[in-house]
Design brief:
By secondary structure, the chain is α/β, with parallel strands linked by helices. The chain has 9 helices and 9 strands.
Length: 281
């Protein structure tokens, strides 16, 4: 079982970090009372998901003082845990609070005093942290990359979910698409009598289309473009990419190329293919 305790200064990015762990398949809980952590861990020992990320910070008020007791209980029970501590410079934290207009957990003090008090309270916990990340000058995607590379390096590409849609232009564009490829210029099986009633999922249609050099060349160009661009989408922190491939009716050409593209990219990314218009008349 893997438990990652996310803590640190208010405004340093703990909520964003928790979302990153959720994208990596962790079961995530925000603002967990420390006294509940050992019981929560016991429940998860028997579950299929062995990866848990918890945020525990000054919002817990008096409960936060019980955190070290809870950590000792985990150690006694033989349950491993890791502490990720997020911090940032004072002026950066002040700017973030002013931009979001959120209250600091130590609202009875002015903001600079609250930040300093929080640093003092959390100093021992920071000293015990396995990882300390200063988010002062990190962009969101840079923080996400740090988390992925530290905790799930093998999931960097798998964290990107790609959806490939074949469609017919006569029925309109998919509304949530990021990239559109138009294959209406390719030879159309619709005008071949014995292929017309079939779809791009039939081998006869596939063989017909791959017979043409323009099909092969265009597919190779699309694949090279995606091989080049997708890693940059991943680097920027994008987690969902929708690729649409359209022909006239969405029965033949777009289906063939969408399936082949899914086959080529599926080994590297979390991917699925949808044929939106294949069953329409």
């Amino acid at each position: 079982m893997r438990i990652v305790l996310i803590t640190g200064l208010s405004g340093a990015g703990k909520s964003f970090a928790l979302n990153c762990f959720e994208d990596l398949g962790y079961y995530c809980v925000d603002n967990m009372p420390p006294t509940l952590i050992p019981k929560f861990a016991e429940l998860f020992i028997q579950s299929e998901n062995k990866k848990v990320a918890l945020v525990c910070d000054m919002r817990g008020a008096a409960f936060f003082e019980d955190l070290f007791i809870a950590l000792r209980e985990l150690e006694t029970g033989g349950i491993d845990y890791e502490i990720l501590f997020l911090t940032a410079e004072d002026d950066v934290l002040i700017r973030r609070f002013k931009e979001t207009r959120r209250r600091h957990p130590l609202a009875d003090l002015n903001l600079p005093e609250a930040i300093q008090k929080e640093r003092e309270v959390l100093s021992e916990l920071r000293g015990r942290a396995n990882q300390v990340i200063d988010t002062s000058y990190l962009k969101p995607w840079e923080l996400k990359n740090r988390i992925v590379e530290t905790y799930e390096p093998g999931q960097r590409d798998k964290n990107m979910q790609i959806r490939i849609i074949s469609f017919g232009f006569k029925y309109g564009l998919p509304i949530d698409v990021d990239l559109v490829f138009d294959v209406r210029f390719l030879p159309n099986p619709h005008y071949v009598d014995h292929l017309k009633p079939l779809t791009g999922e039939d081998e006869q249609v596939r063989s017909y289309l791959w017979r043409w050099p323009e099909t092969v060349k265009y597919f190779q160009m699309v694949k090279e473009l995606l091989d080049f661009s997708i890693p940059y989408y991943v680097k920027e922190g994008k987690t969902n990419l929708v690729i649409a491939i359209g022909c006239t009716g969405g029965h033949h050409r777009s289906v063939v190329l969408a399936d082949e593209l899914g086959h080529e990219l599926g080994a590297r990314y979390n991917l699925f293919v949808e044929h939106r218009d294949i069953d329409k008349n």
